[in-house]
Each structure stands twice: as C-alpha cells, then as structure tokens.
Amino acid sequence: MKKAFNTCFMNTSHLDAFADWLKIERGYSSHTVACYSRDVSEFFQSIKQKIRTEEVTREHVSSYISSLYLINTGSSVARKMSALRTFFRYCLRQGHINIDPLAGIAGPKRSRHIPTYLTVDEVFSLLEEPKKKDRFFLRDKAIMELIYSTGIRVSEAVAINLTDADLTAELIKIRGKGKKERLIPFGSTAGEALQQWLPERNRLIAGRITRGDAPEREALFLNNRGTRLTVRSVERMVANYGLRAGIAIRVTPHALRHSFATHLLEMGMDLRMVQELLGHASLSTTQQYTHLNLEHLTKVYDDAHPQAQKKDEQE
C-alpha cells in the first residue's frame, strides 16, 4: 500500500516513517493511517514538479488548499488539511524541515453540528423493547444499557473483553481512540443486564466447543456463531429496536452516546467530566453537546440564580 502512495513523493522514507509513527506511536488504526498517507500523497501529486519535503513552501500549500475548495466540501478540506498539518509538524519535530509551511494558514469554518439524541422517555422505550421472543434479547439489552450508561462508542463496546468488566465495582475498562484506556463507571441497571447475559454467553462458547470450533474466550458480546459481535450487527440491532419502539428518528448506537452526554449535562454535570467519560481529547469536541433547550436552561436559571429566587419570593 505504501508503494502506491509514494510514487510521486521524492522523500519516500519520510512518508513511510510518518505512517509508522501514526500507527505505532499514536496508535491510529490502519484505516486512518491509510487516509492520512493518501491525503499527504495527493498534496505532493498536485505540485507540478517533484520536490523534497524541505522545499515545500506556504505558497504550495495555499495553492493546493484553494484548489480543494473547487471540488470538496468544507469538512473534506478540513480533513485533508489536518493530515497535512500532522505530517509537517511531524517533519518539523524530526528535523526534516525548519519551517512549517502550514503555520498561520486557517482551515475552513465548520458549521456547528447539533448531535442527534433521544429524550429520556425515548431511551427508556428503546431499552424496554428487547423481549423474550428475540433470540438474543439478553445480549441486546445488555449492550444497549451499557452504551447508554457509559456513553462509549459502539466500536469500543464490541471490543470489550470479559476481563475488562468489574461487575462488583460497576467499572469497565475501555480502549478508545489512539489505544488510550479509560475506566468508566456504569449503573446498576446495566450491571444487572450484564449479569443476566453472561450465562447465555457461556452457552454460546460451549456450543462452539461442542462443534469443534475454537472458543471465543475473550469477547464480552458474542454473535450467534459464538464469535465477537461486530459494529455493523449492533447498528442493525439498535435501528430495529428503534423502529419497533416507534421512535421517529433512525436510532443508532451513536445516538445513545449523544443521549448519554446530553442527559448528563441537563442534570448539571460539569462539561469536563463529560469529556473524560466520552474519551474526547479536546473539550471543544464535547462542547457540541451544549445544545440544551431554552426551556431547560431557563428552569436551571430560575432554580439557581439568587435574583430569580428573590423574584419568586416577592410574588
């Protein structure tokens, strides 16, 4: 894959080393490493003559970014700029260049994204939807309860191993982006759902052994074959229960994550604490959840502000 990316790039060793650094030092997935490598390679392909990394100027970058706006959305331009910025900062730290050609170049302004989330009543309806008629209702309820109770990503949920969950302490170890680990508490309801799922999990493992297949001893959540559950399977399962619950929007595991953050903030939790639970590297990412409605904010104000309380007393 690297050779395909490097045909236009005179400093092939720089791009190869950058890809290794992303994967080994930063813990990025193979997909992310491939995207970053492709974006950097495309930049060098855009330059008419082959140049070395240290020969790249601010003008080269500005001209390339201007061309991107003609055929790309703002979010795509931002992503490609992020890849270039990461690459040249890496080169600067390694001493390959003396000046960062992207320094001072602003990226596109991103529109403020309002996450899709469910109301508390909708979440309760969703979590009550798995019934005994569903073959894996215990598993489905356990994984949905856990996602809503912790706010973890669906990719993080399916990656959980049995040894990551401490059901007594109601804590779970999560491996997030960049292989960063965090310890998250979960509620008693999620804990009970997990306890109820474990005997069924063990039966699936026993079934694999009976069939002569290698047992899956690590994964907490298994599919009907007794192997680790996939992200896509969870997405289909949550969407199906959302339809059955009569929820108007398409329900996704990420909507449960959004709901977790939204409901905590509505209950008054500090934004930085929510950031820690969600595993966000930047507080600005968590700030997308500060979309509380005016009615709720007004109520909080009336309940907390001395002047508002004084007005109520006078009335």
Describe the model.
- Helix 7 crosses helix 9 (about 190-210).
- The chain has 15 helices and three strands.
- It has about 325 residues and is mainly alpha-helical.
- The protein is globular, with a radius of gyration of 24 Å.
- The protein has a three-stranded antiparallel β-sheet, with no helix packed on it.
- Helix content is about 55%, strand content about 5%.
- It has two domains: about 1-95, DNA polymerase, domain 1, CATH 1.10.150; about 120-295, hpI Integrase, Chain A (Orthogonal Bundle).
- The chain has helices at about 1-5, 10-25, 30-45, 60-70, 75-95, 120-125, 135-150, 155-160, 190-210, 230-245, 255-265, 270-280, 285, 295-305, 305-315; strands spanning about 165, 170-175, 180-185.
Please summarize what this structure is.
The protein is mainly alpha-helical and 315 residues long. The chain is built from 15 helices and three strands. The longest helix is centred in the middle third of the chain and has 24 residues, at 188-211.
Please specify the SSE layout and strand pairing.
Elements: H1 2-6, H2 12-24, H3 30-46, H4 58-71, H5 74-94, H6 120-127, H7 137-150, H8 154-158, E1 165-166, E2 171-175, E3 181-185, H9 188-211, H10 231-244, H11 253-266, H12 271-278, H13 283-286, H14 294-304, H15 306-314
Antiparallel strand pairs: 1-2, 2-3
Helix pairs in contact: 2-3, 3-5, 7-9, 7-11, 14-15
Can you tell me the number of structural domains?
2
Spatial gap, N to C terminus:
73 Å
Total number of β-strand segments? 3
Order of helices and strands: HHHHHHHHEEEHHHHHHH
Question: SS-based structural class?
Answer: mainly alpha
User: What is the CA-based Rg, rounded?
Assistant: 24 Å
**CATH superfamily membership of the largest domain, which one?**
Intergrase catalytic core
Spans with pLDDT under 50 lasting ≥5 residues?
1-10
